[in-house]
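testing teh design pipeline on a random one, pls ignore if ur not involved
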């Protein structure tokens, strides 16, 4: 099992960067373009991003078919194409894009999404920034922006609002999620649906980004979201920025496996006491029984997670139970049930 990252993007995947030498604007926000399978009019898409006025665009080229990169890099000199040498997880793609940028904010998008409301990138950045007085009151967070990630309102091709707010839930003693319709400005989300959102780059890096050792995207996002809320960060909705999907909503695979066990040890098992968290030894017998690993492998995994929690122990602001209860209370106590999310 790989060592849990402590420093952001400790191990960068092999890649080649093409283009992106020129800055298009100076609004403080860049775009990160993730590419799904399927043929989409790339030139038209980059023209739309050009109209929005992003400083730079990072396009993660995960497909081996890159026949148009040279042509597009000449036409759009502010677009940096990241050519991957091997397939990497979705979270790793976002981490890599964040390491390539220096804009305070970056907007993660897919090639089957369109921005149809929200104004230009400068207007987006203005909406997300704190006022000077608010910034002075919060000395711990040097960023001039309000939250770790702002998630937009997303609609389908028929302009029907999609349930893209993520809420934690427990079903049969297993942690899971519920999808909710965004009913009001500023509602919280456990993590950004499909990775789509405007991220504060400084906060994202300080958090450690996505854990690349979790290969299952669902648990990778769950780990990111829980860690963000456990460490006092905010992920919430704005209804002033609207996107629409051209294609189908991607399905999520929440099968419990190695990624879930790693997520459990990092987020659900730690206990918060006063001003720090720790992973108690009493959690090990239950973990061993439910993991299905042999005792030596299970202990190695448990011990590694325990060291990681100890290293970051003072970053916790609460435990998973407190997050669940807070979410439950804010929604009328309807969807977090069960005693404890076990492994």
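output:
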């Amino acid at each position: 099992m790989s060592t849990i990252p402590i420093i952001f993007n400790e191990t960068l995947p092999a890649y080649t960067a093409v283009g992106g030498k020129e800055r298009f604007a100076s609004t403080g926000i860049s775009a990160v373009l993730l590419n799904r399978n399927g043929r989409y009019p790339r030139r038209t898409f980059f023209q739309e991003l050009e109209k929005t006025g992003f400083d730079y665009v990072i396009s993660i080229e995960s497909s081996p078919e890159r026949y148009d990169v040279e042509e597009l890099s000449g036409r759009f000199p502010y677009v940096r194409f990241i050519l991957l040498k091997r397939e990497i997880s979705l979270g790793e793609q976002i981490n890599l894009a964040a390491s390539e940028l220096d804009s305070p904010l970056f907007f993660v998008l897919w090639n089957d999404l369109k921005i149809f409301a929200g104004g230009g990138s400068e207007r987006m950045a203005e909406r997300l920034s704190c006022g000077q007085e608010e910034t002075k009151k919060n000395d711990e967070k040097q960023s001039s922006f309000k939250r770790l990630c702002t998630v937009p309102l997303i609609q389908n091709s028929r302009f029907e609002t999609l349930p893209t707010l993520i809420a934690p839930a427990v079903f049969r003693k297993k942690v899971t999620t519920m999808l909710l319709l965004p009913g009001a400005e500023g509602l919280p989300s456990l993590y950004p649906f499909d990775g789509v959102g405007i991220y504060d780059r400084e906060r994202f890096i300080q958090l450690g980004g996505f854990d690349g050792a979790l290969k299952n995207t669902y648990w990778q996002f769950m780990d990111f979201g829980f860690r963000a809320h456990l460490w006092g960060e905010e992920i919430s909705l704005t209804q002033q920025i609207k996107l629409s999907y051209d294609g189908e909503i991607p399905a999520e695979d929440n099968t419990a496996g190695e990624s879930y066990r790693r997520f459990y040890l990092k987020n659900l098992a730690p206990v918060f006491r006063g001003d720090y968290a720790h992973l108690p030894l009493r959690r090990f017998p239950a973990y061993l029984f439910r993991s299905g690993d042999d005792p030596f492998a299970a202990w190695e995994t448990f011990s590694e997670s325990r060291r990681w929690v100890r290293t970051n122990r003072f970053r916790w602001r609460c435990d998973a139970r407190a997050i669940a209860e807070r979410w439950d209370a804010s929604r009328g106590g309807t969807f977090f049930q069960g005693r404890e999310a076990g492994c």
